[in-house]
Amino acid sequence: MASDDAGPFGDTPQTSYVAPLDLFHRFAEPELRALIGDLGLKSGDVVLDAGCGTGVATQWLAQHVMPDGLAIGIDLSTDHVQRARRRARPEGLPLAFLQADLTSIPLTARRFDLIWCSNTIIHLCDALDGARTLVRLLRPGGRLALAQSLFLPEMVFAWDERLEKETVQACRRYYRDQYGLDERDTTAMRNLLGLLQRAGLGKTTVKTVVIERAAPLTSEDEAYFLDGLFRAHWGSRLRPYLSPDDWAELERLCDPDSPRYCLRRPDFHHLQTYTVVIGGV
């Protein structure tokens, strides 16, 4: 996902997000499949999933270009590529996976009809250089789709707005401290439309969908919230960034053994956004 100097989030070939990536794709599958379905892919198209993670979206892309097309997934992480290859074997789809740095992709220029790049471009030290690298891989008439989660803060505790805001801000402060980022460093990551324009693409379109969940939750929803959000994304790392009272309340809301466990509330309601910006050569 990142260049050799590890990028703003310290990514290397040893970095692994296997569990949270799988949790997110199971959780957001309906919305992501619909967005990919709207891309207008057809049999014979050649597509690249740049920063493919564990290859879930690569399989969905492949389903739209079969039987005569090809979907190639590329990722920096050894664990991600291995997981993607294992998952692909029984499916029989037109797929291939490659482990490589996104800023120096060993693929032929002007080859791809579409490049899909989800939750990845912000991991590069120079997002504009990364976008230009991807543009060079597009055929005339090809398109680059950059997608990113959470341009707007997620809403989990609709019935406790103050704690919700404190938790989101604590999470952002943690990541800025963890990776030595200034707030302005993360603000620039939000302008995907400007990034595509500076990379020389035209015919740009923007679409944001809301991923919305309310009680009763499915097992995929519960797994995403508990393991992907409460335990992995938040967890004890937020304790230094919250007041003792807020931390205690957050623990009660996120603990399945607590009588106040939020996922059992009949009024549990969650919103988060997912934005796709598309530009054409």
Q: Tell me, what's the shape?
A: globular
Strands ordered across the widest β-sheet: 3-2-1-4-5-7-6
Question: What's the total count of β strands?
Answer: 7
DSSP helix fraction: 25-40%
The main β sheet shows up as: 7 strands, mixed
Structural Rg: 19 Å
Strand content: 15-25%
Q: Residue-averaged pLDDT, rounded?
A: 92
Q: Which structural category do the helix and sheet elements fall into?
A: alpha/beta
Distance between the termini: 23 Å
- Low-confidence regions: none
Spell the H/E element sequence: HHEHEHEEHEHHHEHHE
Descriptive notes:
Strands 3-2-1-4-5-7-6 form a seven-stranded mixed beta sheet, with helices on both faces. With 281 residues, it is an alpha/beta fold. The chain has ten helices and seven strands. Strand 4, helix 5 and strand 5 (138-149) form a beta-alpha-beta unit. The model has no long low-confidence stretch (mean pLDDT 92). It is 38% helix and 21% strand.
